[in-house]
Design goal:
elongated, 2 domains, alpha+beta, 4 strands, Alpha-Beta Plaits, 4-stranded antiparallel sheet
């Protein structure tokens, strides 16, 4: 185990020596890779801030149930028992509105009392309103629709209107954003691998004679490859740290603009940096991309 640590410590020191020989090139590569990483890192930060907000927004979908005109009043009132059995939410409020009361309310709120009087008979049916309070925003759109289908099958029900369409739209929008971020991350991850691949290739070409001498005196392939692996991992790690720093600094001006917009909705929403475990995960991912690129480059070019 001591020998293994000594080998890796030596490889890391060799990698640092080579980086100090050309600091300008190394810093430029860090800048290029960091720019590529900054976009998916910013997207991950935005989604991480929006996700808990969307989950905490509870909604109370209402189902408006309209009965058939020919349904007897007694049957209409007895439908409340079937609704209570059908609705899984035991705390849901079920309100029955008689057609006569609905007409009076329409006359008061619409200002068309004279016009409605000329109709002769009441065109409105008896109705129910089911107010649900056990559904969550992003997960409940499909559940509400399934419940509406069950209610439509009850006897005497003409139609059911659901006001949860915006719930499904928001959930679909978040899914689209996640997919777009995933595609963006995959594309820019390829760019990162290509940049580091080319950087390691240039190092291999620069140190070609040194590598040949090392092999002549008995150096193994692992001994020769290891410093390049550390170079790629360091390049990815430093680029990831720079990208996270840039994203964190960019949140300040963004929050200034967001604060003005949030005041219009009586909200104090602000973007916050990623949690330390998530930052550590992104740094590990960027270092992993650098290591993969270095392994591909070294194995391809040293094999020649």
């Amino acid at each position: 185990m001591t020998y293994w640590f000594r080998q890796h410590r030596y490889a890391l020191s060799v990698a640092l020596v080579h980086l100090r020989r050309a600091p300008g090139s190394f810093l430029f590569n860090i800048l290029v890779v960091a720019i590529a990483l900054a976009l998916p890192f910013m997207g991950a930060t935005l989604l991480d801030n929006v996700r808990p907000m969307s989950e905490q927004l509870s909604v109370d979908p209402e189902l408006s149930i309209f009965l058939k005109q020919e349904t007897p009043r007694q049957q209409a009132e007895e439908l409340a028992v079937l609704l209570r059995q059908t609705v899984p939410d035991k705390q849901a409020k079920i309100v029955f509105t008689e057609r006569e009361k609905a007409l009076e309310t329409l006359k008061e709120k619409s200002g068309l009392a004279d016009v409605l009087t000329t109709l002769g008979e009441n065109p409105l049916p008896d109705s129910y309103v089911v107010k649900l309070d056990a559904f969550r925003l992003a997960q409940s759109g499909g559940d509400v629709d399934l419940l509406a289908d069950d209610i439509r099958a009850l006897p005497g029900v003409e139609s059911v209107q659901v006001d949860s369409a915006w719930v499904k739209r928001l959930a679909a929008l978040l899914n689209i954003l996640r997919l777009a971020l995933l595609l963006l991350a995959a594309t820019l991850g390829t760019v990162v691998v290509a940049v580091i691949f080319n950087t390691i290739r240039l190092q291999v070409m620069t140190q070609r004679e040194e590598i040949l001498v090392s092999k002549l005196i008995g150096a193994t392939d692992s001994f020769i490859h290891r410093p390049f692996y550390y170079t790629g991992a360091l390049l990815g790690l430093c680029s990831g740290a720079l990208a996270l720093g840039a994203v964190t600094l960019a949140l300040r001006p963004l929050n200034t603009a967001i604060a003005e917009f949030a005041k219009l909705y009586a909200s104090e929403f602000q973007l916050v940096p990623l949690a330390p475990p998530l930052m550590a995960g992104l740094l590990a991912l960027s270092a992993g991309l650098g290591l993969i690129a270095a392994m591909l480059s070294v194995q391809r070019h040293l094999a020649r």
